Amino acid sequence: MPVVGDLRVLLRLRNFRRLLAVRLLSQSADGVYQVALAAHVVFSPEKQASAGAIASTMAVLLLPYSLIGPFAGVLLDRWPRRQVFLYGNLLRAALACCTALLILGSAPDWLFYTSALCVTAVNRFVLAGLSAALPRVVDRDRLVLANSLSPTAGTLAATAGGGIAVIVRVVLADSDAAVVLLGAALYLASALTSLSLATGLLGPDPDGPRIRLGKALTITARGLADGLRHLAERGQASKALAAMTVIRFCYGALTVMVLMLCRYAWSDSESEGLALLGLAVAVSGAGFFMAALVTPWAVGRLGRFRWMAVCAAAAAVLEPALGLWFLPVPTLLAAFVLGLISQGAKIATDTEVQTSVDDAFRGRVFSLYDVLFNVAFVGAAAVVALMLPPDGRSFIVVIWVAALYAVAAAMLFRWSRSDRAF
User: Would the pTM of this model clear 0.85, i.e. be above it?
Assistant: First the structure.
């Protein structure tokens, strides 16, 4: 396979291997930690999880990425990036240990969420630093390839970490604290691995131009405002983002419903419910992978907007057809379909934004895109928390989400007639 051959070429680069090892260990720890949080909030025997608790967990896991992300680069351009990986992962290991102690000590929820929020906030700096450091270990000719393979490998590592966490929780140790400590051990391993990289290797250059921190933050905020104005002037990109926000909102609402179904409607024990959730995540991930294979062909035949419209229309029909049964098998089929549809629409949206937005504004627009993407997911969880019954079975939510998909499909079909992207 070409990808395997390309990866083999990159792995011959010693410093790339070391940086990749830092990423794989760090993101596998992220997967473990996130599953541990979900297990503690939703599947712990001593807790009667509500949709509101699930929404709070999603906010802790996702919002720091959006709120801190645009400003992380300001600090990363002032700190040695190797030290960010070292001290950031050491800090997360320590905070994860604190989270485990809070779980064992039955601490108040606000204290538990504060600890978890700190861990996920630091993660934004580590991930941004990994991307910023990549050009220092790969030559220009291989940079595009490295940018493609390295984040993909990190995502797979996070998924594998989540799978390991489920196995540990269900099979080896019926303890959320034990899973959190596994994540802490992986964060520590990532920190120690970063020591194999020279301190000054990853930048930034110590003699490079520096801007005062306050001024740099102000410039970043103004830059985001400029990006928003530029986006408003690019009709195709703003339309694609609006549609993607609706589709992401729908996916978030259904995710909360599936969590509640796994916890209360389909299982007699917390371990069985967690195993079902792991299966649902895996099936949805398979849909994501299928989207990566199908979308290039579909966009070539239909165009970006029409492919997004087909995705939304298919979801409007299949989501109630499969979801209204509230049974595991049809719902797992729906998880696969919605994973394919959501990721297919996202790939098309990414491409639309990349081609419609001027290069000088692309980074700022993608920062805004990241905010919309995660806030839509968390907002959906908050709204659905007010609508779902305790067992997760809600005809209203299923029909309401189908209606939103239908609205998005209608808008996208209308836009595709007058757009050049067809």
Answer: no
